[in-house]
TrEMBL record:
Source species of the chain: Paenirhodobacter hankyongi
Protein name stated in the entry: Pyridine nucleotide-disulfide oxidoreductase
Pfam families attached to this UniProt entry: Pyr_redox_2, Reductase_C
Residue intervals of the Reductase C-terminal domain: 317-397
Signal peptide positions on this chain: none
All copies of domain FAD/NAD(P)-binding, residue ranges: 4-298
Cofactor dependency: FAD
InterPro entries recorded: FAD-oxidoreductase/Apoptosis (IPR050446), FAD/NAD-bd_sf (IPR036188), FAD/NAD-binding_dom (IPR023753), FAD/NAD-linked_Rdtase_dimer_sf (IPR016156), Reductase_C (IPR028202)
A GO molecular-function descriptor: oxidoreductase activity, acting on NAD(P)H
Swiss-Prot/TrEMBL keywords: FAD, Flavoprotein, Oxidoreductase
PANTHER family to which the protein is assigned, alphabetical: APOPTOSIS-INDUCING FACTOR 1, RIESKE DOMAIN-CONTAINING PROTEIN-RELATED
Gene Ontology CC terms: cytoplasm
């Protein structure tokens, strides 16, 4: 029996394999990961790992003996090049692997700046893999100048780490404000103030014309003609789901690898989970880039491979560490039309669509995050006025 083959070596793949064994599946389970290391946590790469506070052995999701004990074949450093749907095989580096069921957990690599504007100059980095962070780590030395392109969470986290290590940091965001795609103006304002207080220069509403330099990046020329000198550059301009393998195999691609509510593609033997998978949600296709989604969807697909037939109902949660502040997020703020701000242990920002609570951002306020998460997941009715005036948030759970 060929068993189950999982393409990709990240959180979704590891969670899926563990769930399969936890459910009592006794067939072959094979993980084919393109990176040369066992599955590990990605979020700490741009935080604790880069700061030197989290060693590699703490990043790894499972110890080497766990894979052996659970009879899971983990092959690293193998990039799958071809899916043969008729033969039910995948090929990697000339080696052919047969499958009964196949799961694609191929992730979403970062977008890069075009080579024509300096995106491939030495000294220009992205943050996604262990190799990315290992390559840039020697650059993080006090007194050096870093330019960050992009004011999303990845760029802001890199800026915070660099500032803590004594570098001079300038962050450039082409949109009118940082976090424009993912957070309200109130949350962005609090994060901006935090960075400015730590000496980070944030330039918003100004585009990048090109990166300067001949044999190595030396700076960033902005659309208004200014040039910001740089010893190195980090780009955080979003990610693109890895769909090439699926598309070449003739699978449907729509904002990611298109799957139904159970995580199955239009081939009944092939599934997808994690950052690469686009599932039906509220009349459209949703793709989520988070640890929580990778774990939950990976485990759900494992159940459905074994016949559970469950529909995926995402319970979104995210977090971001900025300096000594922790931003915790629950829910999806898509389509919000009102934000209520509360001051508690820290600050929290509550998103409403009409009278429905849909998301909360909690900055150094774990209590607000936990209560907000429970309210959202339970679908418990709560009004903007209650959030604004209730002295004890816990009372809203009754």
């Amino acid at each position: 029996m060929a068993g189950i083959v999982i393409v990709g070596g990240g959180q979704a793949a590891a969670s899926m394999a563990a769930k399969l064994r936890g459910l009592g599946y006794v067939g072959a389970v094979t993980i084919l990961g393109a990176e040369p290391v066992a599955p590990y946590q990605r979020p700490p790469l741009s935080k604790g790992y880069l700061l030197g506070q989290m060693p590699l052995d703490r990043l790894t999701l499972r110890g080497a003996d766990w894979w052996t004990t659970n009879d899971i074949t983990l092959r690293t450093g193998l990039r799958v090049e071809v899916i043969d749907r008729a033969a039910k095989t995948v090929t990697a580096a000339g080696e052919v692997f047969a499958y009964d069921q196949l799961a694609l957990c191929t992730g979403a690599p970062p977008r890069r700046l075009p080579a024509a504007i300096g995106g491939e100059l030495p000294g220009v980095y992205t943050v996604r893999t262990l190799a990315d962070v290992d390559a840039m780590e020697p650059e993080f030395r006090a007194g050096r100048r870093l330019v960050v392109i992009g004011g999303g969470y990845i760029g802001l986290e890199a800026a915070a780490v660099a500032s803590k290590l004594g570098l001079s940091v300038t962050l450039i965001e082409a949109a009118p404000r940082i976090l424009g795609r993912v957070a309200c103006a109130e949350t962005a304002g609090a994060i901006r103030a935090l960075h400015v207080a730590h000496g980070v220069t944030i330039l918003e509403g100004i585009g990048l014309k090109r990166l300067t330099g001949e044999t190595r990046v030396t700076g960033a020329e902005l659309a208004d003609g200014r040039v910001i000198d740089a010893d190195f550059v980090i780009t955080g301009i979003g990610v693109t789901p890895e769909t090439g393998l699926a598309a070449a195999a003739g699978l449907k691609v729509e904002n990611g690898i298109a799957v139904d509510a159970t995580g199955r593609t239009d081939d009944p033997s092939i599934w997808a989970a994690g950052d690469c998978a686009a599932f039906p949600w509220m009349g459209a296709r949703l793709r989520m880039e988070s640890v929580g989604n990778a774990i939950d969807m990976g485990e759900l697909v494992a159940e459905n491979m074994l016949g559970a037939g469950k529909a995926y109902a995402p319970r979104p949660w995210f977090w971001s560490d900025q300096f000594d502040a922790k931003l915790q997020i629950a829910g999806l703020n898509t389509g919000y039309d009102r934000v209520v701000t509360r001051q508690g242990e820290g600050a929290s920002f509550w998103y409403f669509r009409g009278e429905t609570l849909i998301a909360v951002d909690a900055l150094n306020d774990a209590r607000a995050y936990m209560i907000g998460k429970r309210l959202i997941e339970a679908g418990k009715p709560v009004t903007p006025e209650q959030i604004a005036t209730e002295t004890d948030l816990k009372a809203l759970m009754k």
